[in-house]
Predict the structure of Lipase.
Amino acid sequence: MDLVRFLGLNRLKGPWGLKKVLVVGVILVGAFSIFLARGQRKKLILSQSRGCHFPAVYNFGDSNSDTGGRSAAFTRTHSPYGITFFGKPSGRLSDGHLIIDFMVDKLGLPYLHAYLDSIGSNFRYGANFATGGSTIQPINGRMFEARLSPFSLDIQLLQFQQFKSRTNELFSQGIESEIKGSLPRPEDFSEALYTLDIGQNDLYDAMRWMTVEQVQASISNITQKLASAVERLYQQGARKFWIHNTGPIGCLPITVVYNPPKPEDMDDNGCLKSHNEVAQEFNRQLKERVSSLRSQLLDTVLTYVDIYAAKYKLISEAEKHGFTNPLGYCCGHYGSYVVYCGMTTVVNGSEVYGASCTDPSEYISWDGVHYTRAANQWVANHVLDGSFSDPPVSITQACHKHPPHSS
């Protein structure tokens, strides 16, 4: 039966019947359009619902993601740090943003305040436990003398545990208080994203005191401690993790200055191969640990992020992306004499200041160790979309289970 016969339109005669046909047709077309629009809207809503809403981010790490912890606990970060963005020192060891800043911005959250900073901090959307100089391993006497942070990863975890416990305690009292507005809701802890970016100091410090072979042998213990940290956070209710591996420490300008590579230990970019091989071994074992955790903690989402590959790609293609000498640096001076960024020293009876270059955006390295805002932004743009992740998903999808890479 055709549509005309089904609607009884074949019984309509004359001009009036034709008008009725036209009216009915218009109604049908309109209804069908509304039906399609509703279907498309439903698909859009369903698609949007697949995106993750993280109410908070809790970060653990070292200076690569420290937004003010070390500055609050020890000596305040000084000028010219922060000159490109913020307009003043912001506790970050860069001329501006860090990768963690671009990360929370991508998630639609405010910048993370340092847990150790008691002045004007708001932890409603998470907290940053990272401090510059932190290590995965508990600090010992030699590491302390090397000016590494006493706030190692195990201490950062204890700080988080206390933060969560005291927050839950306050909310359980049922007392209306202004301070509650600056703290996360108890239910936010299980829905939050937990990020880890640490390990560089463990390797860099070890390379100063140990042979390459000895450092390689110590890596298993270091990655095991990092895996244990994830398990401890899991026991505290964490379920979604974003874990960075470590970058190419053999390409840090300060590494090349203090350890000028011999021809046989230099790669095509002028980086120290032996140091990078240590970082690569750390990353290989860390990835295995993450894979093992996936099989143990079945209700977790663990994303492993290859920061090394992203940073090395930038270094290898520096000129293509608008950067100058990939092993150069913007602030301070190393070589015949050393003056750190923003510091002063006396050279041949004259005071010399570690000034900034004219345009930090031309450099990958800000101060010989830490990246410029421009370099951090490039790396962030390439890791947050999942290009260097296992599984290969955007951070906005890092709350869903996805099959990891087979390699």
User: Anything to note?
Assistant: The chain has 13 helices and eight strands.
